[in-house]
Design goal:
Elements lengths: L4 E3 L5 E3 L13 E2 L14 E2 L11 E4 L2 E3 L5 E5 L8 H13 L6 E5 L16 H28 L7 E3 L2 E4 L2 E4 H7 L8 H6 L20 H5 L15 E6 L8 E6 L9 E6 L11 E5 L2 H10 L1 E5 L8 H13 L5 E5 L3 H7 L2 E9 L11 E7 L2 E6 L4 H12 L6 E5 L15 H11 L3 E4 L2 H6 L7 E9 L5 E10 L2 H5 L29 E8 L1 H6 L10 H18 L4 H8 L17 H15 L9 E8 L9 E10 L6 E11 L6 H20 L5 E2 L2 E2 L17 E6 L12 H18 L5 E2 L3 H11 L1
Parallel strand pairs: 7-8, 12-22, 18-32, 20-21, 24-25, 28-31
Antiparallel strand pairs: 1-2, 3-4, 5-6, 6-7, 9-10, 10-11, 12-15, 13-16, 14-15, 17-25, 18-23, 19-20, 19-22, 23-24, 26-27, 27-28, 29-30
Helix pairs in contact: 1-2, 2-3, 9-10, 14-15, 14-18, 17-18
């Protein structure tokens, strides 16, 4: 286990091997540095205490502590799901603190209000944490230098810190000795913390350099504990019976007669859920999971269901098209004056429609949760990406005070946005409450997919107007899909200038950095999708369908004008007006997107002669959010078999400007992983709704990118000392349009639907012939 404690039926708690190393101190120092907008770290208060008052540990802030041995324990509120986030964040702090990397440990903490907003998603972790941990580390360095100077009999001004020791002249004293012998009581006001200078980039010793990822040993030697591993003595196991629809199914009857003779079967329980998260759920309880799983196959449940049980993928797409056709609905995310007039005066116009299908998360570790109540506190043991979001839902479901519910943190065996929604904790908690015993719920792969929060199917219509000479004077982008934030976090939705709320995660990327004259972007919520399933955040979220349409459309516009697609884009990335960028995160604006685009096409040999049926395609983006842009460009080289429609992606070239790179090896892994995810969704992944349920619920029919189809991937980061931004998702979005544009370059066949499967390519080729 990690920072949690093991449950002991005798009534005591046994510290785990990754137990808490620190205790919260009193008030005094503001440790958080808030960033405006969704998901910001909130300001947290604590104070430094003498080491002796907190178990011989010096804690300049709640974010870390220094022991008398010199070990530094860094508290991480972000979920670890393979991205080495603890390593990246600890590196920020350790660099400013000036400690030996071999002395650094990470502690993944449990839910507690003192940590502020606990969320791991949106590629926010490094971006949000960098200013917090930088100044927290600098504050600690100042404190140990001052106390070390006293112990050395020197002035603080004559002392320096390096590798976990304070040096003065030829003498030095380690941080551990300062903690053990000194009287560390330095505190900082919020104003002092904000004023603390951090290192100049040239003085950094850890940031930008590769070192061992701190989580690798436990993952390779089997000591790492995932949510599915959580166990307590005396717990029951549960597997759910998933109802036909997400929201409007009711249990009419349960027939468990065939399961009663099964060894280990206990009972089947209809859940009563005041939160409305899992209506119509039946939990099959047994003494072991194999018994629960076999019993669930035998238990027969009769439900009544509403309209959602009859909805198909075609119904969802048709509803999006209808909503786009109605000019009255939706939210105007970008609404420049004069759009209609510009289109009316245009000498030439183009319009295209793009669609994308339903995509599932398919994390390796199916969703699971262990729940029990002990001494008035409800504990939920599971892997979760957004503890702050699910806690009030659990409170409503259980009728329990939120401060009496705690989520214990574990490693995540994949998430990709699925575990941002902690809905799977609710049925385990309700079952535990009903039976008065610990309950461990584990979903099978099929259960997981039927209970998934898929990426919504989407329809988009784009228009562009041109003046004489091909000058772009107007652009209109309309996108309709299910909105994940509307269901799971409506308070996080901003409003347009007319006061109409919208889901930014369903439209990110349409507010692009191209200069296109008068621009309009309309985001439309598909109400039928909202009633049929629970739209979810899936890696790159709306960027996955927005960038697909936008960058395919940019290619089509260039070909309409008979100009090179790269030259066309560069002409529009002029950094004029609102596209100039601003401090601290988008310095340089569109010029930086132009730079990655120029560099990637140079690397890929853009413009060179290709063999028959081989083509290069390009796409460029800024990641997801305008206030946190990660400039990214991709060139895909593909070969198309005209007979079979098979596409072989031979190479992906990617160039990324993410500002300061904290951990180079981890950053490359993030980009590579996200690019291959994008490739998987471009050519292979996707399902459809049939009778209100996803058609494909296991990997025998749901296609994924296989190792044998992985192309050569070449990644380059632009040198930068600008603010670090996100890397987990941006590369996902650019790959599909780059592949689609490459298919067009190779064959002249234009694809406008995701995924691009062989039958789609054969049909597109047939239309050309």
């Amino acid at each position: 286990m990690n920072s949690s404690s093991a449950y002991d039926p005798s009534g005591s708690y046994q510290p785990s091997r990754r137990g808490f190393l620190i205790a919260m101190a009193g008030a005094g120092v503001v440790l958080g540095f808030a960033r405006s907008g969704v998901g910001s770290l909130e300001s947290i208060t604590s104070s430094a205490k003498p080491a002796s008052s907190v178990g011989e540990l010096f804690e300049p802030t709640i974010w870390y502590g220094i022991s008398p041995s010199g070990d530094v324990s860094v508290n991480i509120i972000r979920a670890e799901m393979g991205q080495h986030i603890g390593t990246a964040l600890a590196r920020i702090l350790a660099d400013e603190l000036e400690v030996d990397w071999s002395k650094v440990r990470v502690v993944t903490v449990d839910s507690d209000p003192k940590w502020g907003v606990m969320v791991t998603g949106g590629s926010w972790s490094v971006w949000q944490t960098f200013p917090v941990f930088s100044r927290a580390g600098a504050a600690g360095r100042m404190a140990v230098i001052e106390e070390g100077a006293k112990l050395l009999g020197a002035s603080p001004q004559s002392c320096t810190a390096r590798l976990g020791a304070v040096h003065a002249g030829g003498r030095s004293i380690s941080y551990g000795d300062i903690v053990a012998r000194g009287n560390l009581q330095r505190t900082y006001t919020p104003e002092q913390l904000k004023a603390i200078p951090i290192k100049a980039p040239r003085d950094r010793r850890l940031i930008g350099r590769d070192t061992l990822a701190l989580d690798i040993p436990s993952k390779t030697d089997g000591k790492g504990i995932y949510g599915i591993d959580a166990a307590v003595e005396g717990m029951l196991y549960a597997r759910p019976k998933i109802p036909p629809t997400r929201y409007d199914s009711k249990v009419i009857s349960i027939d468990d007669s065939a399961a009663k003779n099964l060894p280990g079967y206990i009972r089947s329980l209809t859940l009563d859920d005041p939160s409305g998260t899992v209506p119509g759920w039946v939990m099959v309880l047994a003494e072991s999971f194999p018994a629960a799983s076999r019993a669930a196959d035998l238990v027969k449940v009769t439900w009544s269901s509403g309209e959602a049980a009859h909805v198909s993928e075609q119904d969802l797409q048709q509803r999006s098209a209808e909503l786009i056709a109605d000019p009255k609905g939706g939210s105007l995310v970008v609404d420049d004056p004069g759009v209609n007039a510009a289109f009316a005066s245009a000498k030439h116009k183009i319009e295209q429609t793009y669609t994308s299908g339903t995509v599932m998360h398919f994390a390796l570790e199916p969703v699971n949760a262990l729940a029990f109540e002990k001494n008035g506190v409800f504990e939920i043991h599971t892997g979760n990406q957004w503890q702050t979001l699910i806690l009030p839902v659990l409170a409503k479901a259980l009728g329990h005070r939120q401060e009496k519910i705690v989520l214990r943190s574990y490693l995540l065996g994949g998430a990709f946005g699925r575990r941002l929604d902690g809905d799977y904790a609710v049925p385990a908690a309700l079952a535990a409450k009903a039976v008065g015993k610990p309950v461990k719920m584990v979903c099978t792969r099929e259960d997981d997919m039927r209970f998934d929060c898929p990426r919504s199917p989407a329809v988009q219509v784009l228009r562009m107007g041109f003046a004489d000479g091909g000058k772009v004077i107007a652009m209109d982008h309309q996108a309709a899909a299910g909105w994940p934030t509307a269901t799971m976090a409506p308070s996080f939705m901003p409003k347009d200038d007319h006061g109409v709320p919208f889901d930014p995660f369903a439209i990110h990327g349409a507010d692009h950095w191209y200069t296109v004259g008068a621009q309009r972007v309309r985001a439309i919520q598909n109400d039928l999708a909202q009633r049929t399933f629970r739209p979810g955040w899936l890696r790159s979220v709306g960027g996955g369908w927005i960038c697909w349409a936008l960058e395919t459309f940019m290619d089509e516009a260039a070909h309409e004008l008979r100009v090179d697609p790269v030259s066309f884009r560069l002409r529009l990335l002029d950094g004029a007006g609102r596209n100039a960028g601003s401090a601290p995160d988008s310095v340089g604006g569109a010029k930086r997107q132009a730079a990655v685009l120029s560099r990637v096409t140079q690397k890929a040999g853009w413009g060179s002669v290709m063999p028959d049926d081989v083509g290069l395609g390009v796409a460029s983006s800024f990641g997801q959010e305008r206030d946190m842009p990660t400039w990214c460009a991709c060139v895909a080289r593909v070969r198309v078999d005209r007979t079979s429609g098979q596409v072989i992606v031979e190479k992906l070239n990617l160039v990324v400007d993410a500002g300061t790179i904290i951990q180079p090896d981890g950053a490359a892994a993030q980009v590579e992983g996200s690019a291959l995810w994008g490739l998987s969704m471009a050519l292979y992944e996707g399902t459809e709704f049939v009778m209100g349920q996803p058609k494909d619920t296991n990997l025998d029919t749901y296609a994924l990118l296989r190792m044998g189809n992985v192309p050569e991937v070449e990644i380059e980061f632009m040198p930068s000392t600008e603010a670090p931004v996100g890397l987990g998702e941006p590369a996902t979005a650019v790959v599909a349009p780059a592949i689609g544009n490459a298919i067009f370059a190779a064959t002249g066949a234009r694809l406008r639907h995701l995924p691009m499967r062989p039958e789609n390519i054969r049909q597109a080729l047939a239309r050309r012939s």
